[in-house]
Amino acid sequence: MTFETLHNDMIKAMKARDKARKDVLSTLIADVKKAAIDAGKREDIPEELVDQTILKSKKTAREQLDTCPDERTELKAEYQFAYDVICEYAPKMMSDDEIRAFLTANYADLLATKNKGQIMKAIMPALKGKADGKAINAIVAEMSK
After folding, report:
1. What is the Cα–Cα distance from 2 to 19, expressed in whole angstroms?
2. Which of 57, 59, 63, 93 is most buried, with most CB under 10 Å away?
3. Which residues have C-beta within 8 Å of that of residue 22, sequence separation ≥ 6?
4. In which element (H, E) is residue 80 found?
5. So which residues are the signal peptide here (predicted)?
């Protein structure tokens, strides 16, 4: 996802007078800008940074949704809307089968050692931002038994 795409979509939401969508997108843009400043890449924001920030925002929105009390239906609906909008922009994650295939194709020799810590240390940099860490951990635990 490029920063320009996010910005253009926010402008479209403003023109359509979709305040809720515009608010979510402007928050995403602010998060991306802050991350870019922190990384020292203020002028030319790379796609990887945008994707990382969106994934972080998605995780935060999921936590908000999960911790919201059920009796606060209006607030829960607001959180759900924000989560859905963020999911539209989040990069596609690998499925469990794709993770298994990737591991067996690229790390078969390491999987044979059955050392979970060593395996995780080797594969996490390769799969960062492409697959959910919890899913990777569960699959590696299963494969290293």
Report:
1. 22
2. 57
3. 10, 13, 14
4. helix 73-89
5. none
As a whole number of angstroms, the distance between CA 93 and CA 103 comes to 15
Helical pair 133-143 and 116-127, crossing angle rounded to 10 deg: 140
Structure-token pair, residue 82: 């924000």
Q: How many residues does the chain have?
A: 145
Question: What's this model's pTM, rounded to 2 decimal places?
Answer: 0.75
A 10 A CB-CB count for 119 gives 21
Residue with tokens 């990069």: 91
CA dihedral 116, 122, 126, 128 (to 10 degrees): 60
Tokens of 142: 């299963």
| Residue 94 backbone class (left: φ over 0; alpha: ψ -120 to 50; beta: rest) | beta
Taken in order 94, 100, 101, 103, is the CA torsion positive or negative? Answer: positive
DSSP string, 17-35: T-HHHHHHHHHHHHHHHHH
